[in-house]
Predict the structure of Catechol 1,2-dioxygenase.
Amino acid sequence: MTEQTPAEIEARAADSGAGATAAFRSKLQTEGLEDVTPERVNTLAREVLTAVHDTIRRHKVTYAEYDALKAWLIQVGEDGEWPLFLDVWVEHVVEQVANENRHGTKGSIEGPYYVPDAPGLPADATLPMREDESGTPLLFQGQVTTVGGDPIAGAKVEIWQADALGFYSQYAPGLPEWNLRGTVTADEQGGYRIHTLQPAPYQIPTDGSCGKLIAAAGWHAWRPAHLHLKVSAPGHQLITTQLYFPGDAHNEDDIASAVKPELMLDIVPAESGEGEQTTYNFVLDPA
Ligand code: MBD
Ligand code: FE
């Protein structure tokens, strides 16, 4: 793999936040937006504004701080970083509420970098990757079942992940379109064996508005390494989740608050002798 200068890596990082705005717009075009009733808007907008007012009073927010906020909010939109901001700092609570009654596999946030319709792959598959793709080989295998433990033949396992530098295809230039993305169809026993690579931890782009907030507040910009998944089958609820790697320095302080103990992988040396392997089974709730 060719070496990148820090400036090149920064340039790629800047693109990724904005790309998420374009991707969200195209999702809206295909799926549209459901109506939110005036009653809900009234309740929710009023409560959020009241919380803001309370914060201003409690901390005696100044005009200088108010103007800094205005400037920053304007810039988030210009940078195209609203999806990034919302998915990093808000989505985890929406996910918690949405999935609180499930009995199957725990959910986690989708984040800004999902792309629908990744190439279809058989149950035993290697994710699309470059010939010289760097990183530790990882065999990710398991089975999809119902909450009752019955295998779900032909379940769909969509997977997307960052490469060994922390970049997602279609959100960083220079990567093949579907790099490290795929739609795997499980076998008759609901089984899948996906050959991929260990992803790198992900750093929120430091050069955009989200990065400015992180720097201004003295926070860090990291998510622990993770695999993204959407697992689905007819008659069952689709689950969107993420899986994590033990020992990652940011499992305990994910900037996106999306780690759950149930989503920690058990990584062991690969039986093939090359790299690592892990087994994770998905349990789907009935629709
Ligand atoms: C990611 O890769 C991610 O998963 C989330 C939630 C936010 C930003 C980047
Ligand atoms: Fe991610």
